[in-house]
Amino acid sequence: MMNKPTRVLLIDDHRINAELVAGMLDQEPDLALDYLQEPGEAVRAARAFGPSVIMVDLHMPVFSGFDVIRALKEAPDLAPIPIIMLSSNDSPQVKATGFTAGAMDYLVKWPDRIELAARLRAHARAHAATRERDQAMQALAASQAALLERTRELADAQASLHEAQKMEAIGQLTNGIAHDFNNVLQLITGHLQLLRMMHKHDEKTVRRVEAASEGVRRGARIAGQLHAFARRQPLTPVTMPVDAHLRSMEAAIAGVLAGRSFAITSSGETALAALDPVQFGNSVLHLVRNAADAMGADGHLTITIDRAPLPGGAEGQGDADHVRVRLRDNGAGMSEEVQRRAFEPFFSTRGGRRGLGLSLAFGFVKQSGGQIELTSASEDGTTVSLYFPATHAASPRQEGGTRTVLVVEDEAAVREVCVEVLRKQGLYVLEAADGETALGLIRQRLPIDLLFTDIVMPGGVTGQDLARAAAEHLPYAKVLFASGYPAGLHEEGELVQCTQLLHKPYRLDEMTRVVRGLLEV
């Protein structure tokens, strides 16, 4: 393979000089000459030709050779190229000026052909060696940077593995403690029941037994929370629209935040995941309570729902195959040391709190096949991101699937009882505290099988409005009204034929029977 010829650029205002140099190099096949007569174009021509050596005549009428040399040296990409001055003046002052401008050599017009070729080759070799050295140093620096980055990645991976092993060990220990604790509680509650039977006519003793029993119940709740962290709690997952479920929790979230502002936003993408609705709601409320504790009275919490890949992959890579719920507050934030221990049970930076909120969320997310991520900085707020495997929407009336009920009731106590009873029937329940919220859920065309709504509610949206919206957006959905004012229903004769009415007050077993009957039709 032949080596590429050394490229030489001559800048001279007299073409005859170019012809003379070309004749001197005619017998040198390894030297390729290009000529520029316009010194003002020196930088552009040098970039276009890519020379290994540049020869510049010092005495030109418009641009002096010194100006040309300075212009070439001021261009970062051209500065390393060696420059040879050409002049018929052998003055030391002229040479010194040229060297100061950036030239590396000096030739008196005109040198011997052999000397000219030798100097051009020597400067070309030096230039090539310098370039190779610089490239090697750049490659070495890049290799060192890559090695450092890889070392950091390995250190992060080891830290993550250590953290996972630590949390797994804590989980196993916690589960064992909770198991033994429950056995102790069972022993205590058994003897308390015996005491109650033996002293059932002694009111003072009965009160003391009841107080002790309440302590046992509190202990059982703590044991249940420990099981949740250890990923041993029983879950009943159903395919649910995560964004709609969170919007149905707005009243509960507002109550926990106690006047602090919040916003729930979603990307508009389908956000279905197989989750236990009750435990998901509890986990979110635990995180909201943590955010409220970290924020001042003017704090703000943002909850966003979207589709995203699991964290840890390369930026822009990976399918958005998980539903992400992100809670971002503008509170005090956490130090790195606190973040490292944040998911440990009973760890808290605030006195008087058990420190189980993040632990319970961690356990629930892991048990649901997801991942939880915490990012924070002191005085810069905290972001907790929950990732759950996304599921595909099922047919709304698929036989054997979990049925979805939307409960709309402005009385919080009534709504909570209805929701709890229906969930214990194995139904997936969305809830709304007002007609506006319910209307938004209906217009999303969520897979709602039954709309169970009060008729008369504060605001501009009534139960009849919701029934009309359901007929338009959810034609397969059944409607069940509940009201203490049944007269209003008869004004909508057309709707009566596709709805049923529960008169308040109604029994919960009656409500369950009617709901089941509608869903089985």
Automatic annotation (TrEMBL):
Where is the PTM 4-aspartylphosphate found along the chain?
57, 454
Entry keyword set: Phosphoprotein
> Taking every annotated instance into account, which residue ranges of this chain make up the domain Histidine kinase?
176-392
* Domain spans labelled Response regulatory: 7-124, 404-519
Gene3D superfamilies with a match to the protein in the record: 1.10.287.130, 3.40.50.2300, Histidine kinase-like ATPase, C-terminal domain (3.30.565.10)
Keyword match Phosphoprotein: yes
UniProt cross-references to InterPro entries, sorted A to Z: CheY-like_superfamily, HATPase_C_sf, HATPase_dom, His_kinase_dom, HisK_dim/P_dom, HisK_dim/P_sf, Sig_transdc_His_kin-like_C, Sig_transdc_resp-reg_receiver
Signal peptide residue numbers: none
Q: What is its EC number?
A: 2.7.13.3
Reactions mediated catalytically: ATP + protein L-histidine = ADP + protein N-phospho-L-histidine
Under the heading SUPFAM superfamilies, the entry gives: ATPase domain of HSP90 chaperone/DNA topoisomerase II/histidine kinase (SSF55874), CheY-like (SSF52172), Homodimeric domain of signal transducing histidine kinase (SSF47384)
User: What's the domain of life for this entry?
Assistant: Bacteria
Name of the featured protein: histidine kinase
